[in-house]
Amino acid sequence: MPNITKHRRFVATAVAVTLGATTLAACGGSDDDSGDRSGPAKLTYWTWTPGMDKVVDLWNKGPGKEQQITVTVKKQASGDTLVTKILTAHKAGKGPDLVQAEYQALPTLVSNDAVADIASEAGDAKSKFATGVWQQTTLGSDAVYAIPQDIGPMMFYYREDLFEKYGLTVPKTWDEFAETARKLKKEDADVDLTTFSASDSGLFAGLAQQAGAKWWTTEGQKWKVAIDDPATQRVADFWGGLVKEGAIDNQPMYTPAWNKALNTGKQIAWVSAVWAPGTLTTAAPETEGKWKVAPLPQWSASENTTGSWGGSSTAVTTDSENKGAAAKFAAWLNTDPEALTALAKEGGIYPAATTAQTSDAFAEPPAYFANQADFYTVASEIAKTTAPSAWGPNVNVAYTTFKDAFGAAAKNKSDFGAALKTMQDDTVADMKKQGFEVAE
């Protein structure tokens, strides 16, 4: 994405685009205004990560005490609920100093001037993260709107025992994936390789990201929306074709039926992310120790890239009167070895910092994957290949339309390409309605 900082005023003075938020003018501090007061700093941090108070205690008793910077954790709901709360607080000029923000929410917060550019305070933080991960907090510009916290690199999970039973080979390309699904159906018509879940917008976005999609970019003073670009069309046609021919299931995930299919071996693979072991522990408890993980299939054998499904960052708000102090804490939280170990232990997160992914906290595989000693070694190598993303200011609208349009297409086994066009059209229409200039 081109430098969004140059366009902040035109974007921010348009209408806030998420969740019916009202118009917010560009009234926050400028990028070169540290906003710091002299003397001790007392900061408030809005976050949903479990155990964050214990992690913050390490700061308050150590570096924070030395620097006279105290942080207080205020637990929040995640997702759209928190975005709405942040924007509402910002409108009233009463935002916290720091917020946890999902990567796809950052453009909305930036366009509403709710988070600050902390490039001058970020130090050498950039060197701690994979390029594709760091880009999600810069929006492709010279600005730094947050420090990456956790990530969700996508991976391929499969039942090792059942792959052996049915004579299947772990697919290295998506063409091989399709052939594997078809071969399994010939071996046992009652078993599916996996399902296409139209209830999971983030999964589809990650698959498109892996294929090279850039759904939102800017062109001069306008937004450009390309949700129906060739890369995403390829993804939609691929999965739509498998659903239409019956090579895979078409039911949503995270349902009792899906849990049962995994637990009984009626579905034997899952395209997911690094956090999947926690889900499998409850969804398919009887299959513990029977799954393995491998890199996501590629669109060509010469490629080596993955998408991202989930993840968040730590941002400093424009309302903070101690932006410099807040930035120091954000950098410590997501790059300091002790902090990262605590985040993994107390919060159960997979850290964005590359060094932390091979730390002692990940020396042992998840208990569910005790049979794959190198689980986290594989995960860290895959994480390095995370493709860049390009989020926009109304991700929520695109995601909602995906669930509606693709939900109907999956159920009816109809054209996924038409559903993708609906997603594109609805997203563009919403942006125009909200007052954004959109390039045709």
TrEMBL record:
Signal sequence: where? 1-25
Check the record and name the PROSITE patterns matching this protein. PROKAR_LIPOPROTEIN
Record key words, sorted: Cell membrane, Lipoprotein, Membrane, Palmitate, Signal
Name of protein: Extracellular solute-binding protein
Question: What does UniProt list as this organism's lineage?
Answer: Bacteria, Bacillati, Actinomycetota, Actinomycetes, Kitasatosporales
